[in-house]
Amino acid sequence: MKKTLIIIAILFSVVVFSQETVNEIIYKKKAGKLYVKDSTELSPKVLAIFNAGEAAMKKKSYKLSFDDKHSYFEEIPSISNTTDTKESFEVHFGNKLADKTGNIMGIFYTDVSKDIFIKQKNANFDLYLITTKLSKRVWDIDMKSSKKVGNYTCYKATTVQNAYNNGVNLARPVTAWFSPELAYPFGPGDYAGLPGLILELVFESQKVVVYADKITLNKAKTKKDKGIKPPKKGIKVSEEAYNTMLKNIKRAKG
């Protein structure tokens, strides 16, 4: 009887512990030599927008919460993200540029056990829930290429970012650096499915880097922690239907 009670107590403590902790990564975003090969080709106003965009990127933070099977990725709201009616034309469009580069706008939820990925995104003045398969993203893993990101050894993997312009898929290259030392298949935005956490993501054509700034494992939960649950609000659509809608919107705008 005593042994039974001891086993129950141990199991109860394990369950309570797992419920009271959360794993978390804070990501930041930065730009390389900003998006352009030669800044002398730009007008002063356009260059000012790019410079404002670079400054806005440095202020952005994103949070990935995760356990063994689920993850939830979102931007951390900040005062700088609020609209300032007095901001200049350059700052206004610089902020928009900082939002769009890197393709990680919105809320992203992953459930490995069900092989599903849910994106919550704003488009055309509506909120959408786009569901697809986690396994749909194809990675080319190169275990011969490695580097240190913080204290972790990371390996290279490449994929493409599907970006549409006038109905044409540009298929921009994206490089991920993931660490098998952190054996969770998650990362920023909808970049997931590798045998280790993605600690750095490089959007090659935009020269933008999303990188892990702080990693916290088994962090004690607080009242601010929402739990890892899928987003509920939004019109449910498939990824194919969502992309078709975006193409039609762009065509209509000319």
Could you describe the 3D structure shown?
- The protein contains 4 helices and 14 strands.
- The chain is α+β, with helices and mostly antiparallel strands.
- The protein has one domain.
- It has a 12-stranded mixed beta sheet. A two-stranded antiparallel sheet has the order 9-10.
- The radius of gyration is 20 Å and the shape is globular.
- It starts with a helix and ends with a helix.
Strand residues, percent: 35-45%
Question: Count of helices?
Answer: 4
Question: Strand order across the biggest sheet?
Answer: 7-8-11-12-13-1-2-3-4-5-6-14
Q: Rg from C-alpha positions?
A: 20 Å
Query: How confident overall, as mean pLDDT?
Result: 81
In short, what is this structure?
It is built from 4 helices and 14 strands.
Helix and strand topology:
Layout: H1 2-19, E1 21-31, H2 44-58, E2 61-66, E3 70-75, H3 89-100, E4 107-111, E5 116-123, E6 126-133, E7 140-149, E8 152-161, E9 164-165, E10 168-169, E11 172-179, E12 197-203, E13 208-220, E14 235-238, H4 239-253
Provide key terms for this protein:
254 residues; alpha+beta; 12-stranded mixed sheet
